[in-house]
Design brief:
Order of helices and strands: HEHHEEHHHEHEEHHH
Strand content: 5-15%
Largest sheet: 4 strands, antiparallel
Distance between the termini: 66 Å
Number of strands: 6
Number of helices: 10
CATH superfamily: Outer membrane efflux proteins (OEP)
CATH topology: Outer membrane efflux proteins (OEP)
């Protein structure tokens, strides 16, 4: 008779072990898993092309998407009742007895009267909603970052193109003429040194621009999730200044991805607080009990319940309440910050847009005047230098306006190109 509890235990253990999931290692296969597999060349015709590639290949975005899938799986596996517990005890009577062994066992089930499993499901779903909001906010922020990196790349390419155009035949002829005039004593040493310094400065500026271009290309490739050896072919140019930016209604910013993420975190803290409040209520432990005493088999029922007298999950509830307060304040501050940033970016764009341009000098007219002898070599070089500075300043202005336009997309909720 004393072996009856074991007869009950073994089938339960076998069924439970058969249903348990087995561990499977997943080592990294560097030959396959870590292969970048990127193309050798990528053509970008617009910033939206770059954004589309980034939404597909950006590593951080893909990591966040995998996190969403993980949290969805966790939510599906949440809310299960606690597994039943089997308790067995065996005692031996030391004094002489016809029945020296006492044994018994109990199978205890936990009935969640507190409703904790349902609240655990809500918490897991709240974590999933937060993960999805993180992906949307990250995609939105990535779009802005890629556009700005794209415009910086365009500006550097145009700067390099303008600087390289300075080394043309007319300019070299004018420089040779100045050297000849210096040899003849018609040009002073200071004028010659000023000319040489100007050429040296321009050469140094070109070298810095080429270095900055390589850095900008690597930064953009990293945002796109491409190998740094991939060749970028860019067919776009810096956009021309547009009309004044529209005003942003502050109430529309309540639907901003960052605000939605902050609200998702607030919902997560609300669900966690509700779960901790539920955990202070007791659950019922109940199950059948078997005992063998003095050779007699006994069958009964055991039941237990905790008494929430002084602990009542106070610490966890206090932590959850504090977290809810912080996330609530963070959501409000997030919206207020966006309102201030939108006003600041629009004001900066409005201030930069009507900037007065320097009087434009026609390059061909300068070349013709120099060819006809209407301009001295020094005057021609000085005017060409002025023309270069004006062109570089205009490129810088267009870059600034383009970057401000990219910043302003943070408040207009432009839908990113689909990556499906």
């Amino acid at each position: 008779m004393k072996h009856i509890p074991l007869l009950i235990l073994f089938p339960l253990l076998l069924c439970g072990l058969a249903a348990c999931k087995q561990y499977t290692p997943a080592p990294i296969d560097w030959e396959n898993d870590a292969t970048l597999g990127t193309p050798c060349e990528v053509t970008l015709g617009s910033p939206e092309d770059a954004v589309l590639l980034a939404l597909i290949g950006n590593r951080e975005i893909n990591r966040l998407r995998l996190s969403v899938a993980t949290k969805e799986n966790i939510a599906q596996e949440s809310g299960w009742w606690e597994d039943p517990a089997f308790e067995f005890d065996l005692k031996r009577i030391l004094d002489p007895s016809d029945h020296p062994f006492l044994g018994g066992g109990a199978l205890v089930f936990t009935i969640p009267l507190s409703g904790v499993p349902e609240r655990e499901i809500k918490v897991a779903e709240a974590f999933t909603d937060t993960a999805k909001a993180e992906v949307l906010a990250a995609e939105h922020a990535l779009g802005i970052e890629v556009r700005k990196a794209f415009y910086e790349l365009l500006a550097l390419r145009e700067r390099i193109y303008v600087l390289e155009q300075m080394e043309d035949a007319a300019l070299c002829h004018a420089r040779d003429a100045v050297l000849a005039l210096y040899s003849a004593g018609e040009v002073s040493l200071a004028e010659r040194m000023a000319m040489e310094q100007s050429f040296h400065t321009r050469s140094h500026t070109l070298t810095e621009a080429r270095t900055a271009l390589r850095t900008a290309e690597h930064n953009l490739l990293q945002l796109l999730g491409l190998h740094p050896e991939v060749t970028l072919r860019v067919t776009a140019t810096l956009p021309s200044p547009q009309a004044p930016l529209p005003e942003v209604e502050v109430q529309t910013l309540l639907k901003h991805p960052e605000v939605l993420l902050a609200l998702a975190r607030l919902g997560e803290s609300e669900a966690q607080l509700e779960l901790e409040v539920r955990r202070q209520y007791p659950d019922l432990n109940i199950g059948p009990v078997y005992a063998n005493e003095e050779g007699l088999n006994r069958l009964g029922l055991t039941a237990g319940i905790t008494l929430p007298l002084w602990n009542r999950n106070r610490k966890a509830i206090a932590e959850a309440e504090g977290e809810r307060t912080l996330t609530r304040l963070s959501a409000i501050h997030c919206w207020q910050t966006l309102v201030c940033d939108a006003t600041k970016v629009r004001a900066a764009y409005q201030q930069c847009l009507p900037h007065a341009l320097a009087p434009h000098q026609d390059r061909q007219a300068l070349d013709q005047l120099f060819t006809l002898g209407e301009l001295t070599p020094l005057d021609y070089l000085a005017l060409r230098e002025t023309l270069l500075e004006q062109t570089l300043l205009e490129i810088e202005r267009q870059q600034q306006l383009a970057l401000l336009t990219a910043d302003f997309t943070n408040f207009t909720f432009q839908k990113a190109p689909s990556h499906d």
